Amino acid sequence: MNRVAFVSHVVPPSWSGQAVIIGRLLRYVSKNAYCLISTDANASAYHNRFTSPLQGTYHYLPKEPGFASRISALLAPLDALLALFLRCVRIVRILKHERPSAIVAATGDLIDIPAAYLASRLLHIPFYAYLFDDYVYQWPDGRRAAARLFESITVRKTAGMIVPNEFMEQEIRKRYSGKVHLIHNPCETLSVGNSGRRTTTGRDAIKIVYTGAVYHVNYASFRLLLAATDKMESPDVTLHLYTAESPQTLEREHISGPRVVYHDHVPSEKVIEVLKLYDIAFIPFSFDSHVPKVIKTSAPGKLGDYLAAGIPILAIVPPDSFVSWYLRKWQCGLVVDVDEVEAIARAITRLANDADLRADISRRAVERARIDFDPDKASRQLLSALGILQ
Description:
Layout: E1 4-7, H1 17-26, E2 34-38, H2 41-49, E3 57-60, H3 68-71, H4 76-98, E4 102-106, H5 112-123, E5 127-130, H6 143-154, E6 160-163, H7 166-175, E7 180-182, E8 206-211, H8 219-231, E9 237-242, H9 247-252, E10 260-263, H10 271-275, E11 280-284, H11 292-297, H12 302-309, E12 313-316, H13 322-330, E13 334-336, H14 341-353, H15 355-372, H16 375-386
Parallel strand pairs: 1-2, 1-4, 2-3, 4-5, 5-6, 6-7, 8-9, 8-11, 9-10, 11-12, 12-13
Helix pairs in contact: 4-5, 5-6, 8-14, 12-15
């Protein structure tokens, strides 16, 4: 049977968005059709103690120790090359045992893609890069130059690139002449829709929900949202965060106060049921981030879940971003693309008071989830792109 080796710095059961998407992509794939290769220590501990949520074989890659950088910071690039070589050797050993017909390496770690690519060339196995984020521009520091070099090498013999949205597809086609496969990040399930959701009116308290990681690319938009709610006399608005980040970490970024309610991170399989309890789902990206190209081409994994739940989406995002384009094109969410507190307050008030608008957004959201974010369809697209038959 044809099978694929999937290399990623995080894999299920990690709460990371990338790990969740990988889990959804492989959920409907036979356990004999893939293996996972990762430096994810948490996943390693889980696989050693429990039955994996994914039944494919798991291989743990221990992090490579640094040698040269202990002597001098100027020698740090040597550490990267040594780590790249060592990880390649380890991946080769696994591939010889697993004998896959294709190897996929995902973004998130600087050396996973070049190490897996070199292993594929040594063993004459087709190589695919899965770009959950832009491999070059996701690094805001000196690693960007290394990533650019690694990308220039790997694209020469890469069998194909896999991207999660149309903006990333356009960007990669500028830099790569081979096959580019578009697979939207799938939602958890399509079976829920917007049935059973609470009804919002302008007289009610409005509950805004956000699920997932809170980090540097969205801190500023969270602060804008809270500033807008502080200006609103009616309705009463609260922000509910389901995240693995600690309240202390968020308080340091001024994402706190009487309007903020912290919850534990919600498991992927329960996320859409949780979303049904709220009035508005929030997608934030900062306007002044130091990684603007990443934000432009970013496809947050939560987008599919928000759409599938049929919950009205409020996005505070730059106007040139994929999220802004998608929600506007399909009219399945409300976008504020300026960093103005008053504009955000008006958008919340509009969603709270306009029942017809909420109904239209919810209907179109569920429709787009079925068209673009179906997990079964995404799995079939992945296997087709890799030439894998079940």
